[in-house]
Specification:
Length: 211
Amino acid sequence: MQQGQHISDANVFVIEDDPAMSFLYGELLGSIGAAARFFTSGEEFFAAFSPAWQGGVVLDLRMPGMGGIEVLRRLRALDCHLPVIVVSGYGDVRSTVQAMKLGAVEFLEKPFANSEFIEAVQAMLAHGRKNHAVEAVQHEIRVCLATLSDREREIAELIARGLTSREIAALLAISSRTVDVHRAHILNKLKCSSSVELAALLARIPQGDMG
C-alpha cells in the first residue's frame, strides 16, 4: 500500500509522552486514514485497555513511570495479540532484543523518515488483521467444541491423532460401532466431512484448547 491510500478499518493506539511526537504521529496516521487513540503513559493505556481492541500499538520505549518494555510484558501477560511498533530515541541492541522477544513486530529509532513510519504502520495493521482473522476462526472452532460431550471430545482428539475406530475402541474399551456413532456425531457438530478435515480443523487451535 502506498502513502496516500487509506485504511478505513485501522485503529492505532499510540503510547507517547512527547506532545510533539504525538502530533507528528497524528498527522502521519491521518494521511493513511488510520484512526488513532493517544495515551501519554502505559498506565493511562491500561486504564482504558479492552481485549476487544483491534489494530496495533505504537509504543515509545522510554517514558516516565511504566516504560515500553514493561508495557510489552503486561500485554503479553494479558495474552493480547495486538502487534506493536516500538519507537525510541535511545535505541540499543539490548532494548531491541528485549522488545522483539516480547512480541514487538518492528523497532524504529528516532529520527526516522516519515515514509519508514508509514510503511511500518501499514505492515503492523496487516499483521493485526491477520491475527484477528485467525482468532475469529479459533473462536468459532471453540464454540463448536463446546457442543461436544466429554466422550466426544476424547474421541475427537484420538481421531485427530490419526487413530482408527478399532484402535480407539481398544484404547477406550468400547466397541468399534460405538466409536463410529460418536465419530458421526462429532463430524456433524464440527461441520466436517471427514476425519482428515477434523484433524485439520483441530490443528488450527492451540494445544490444550480441547480440554
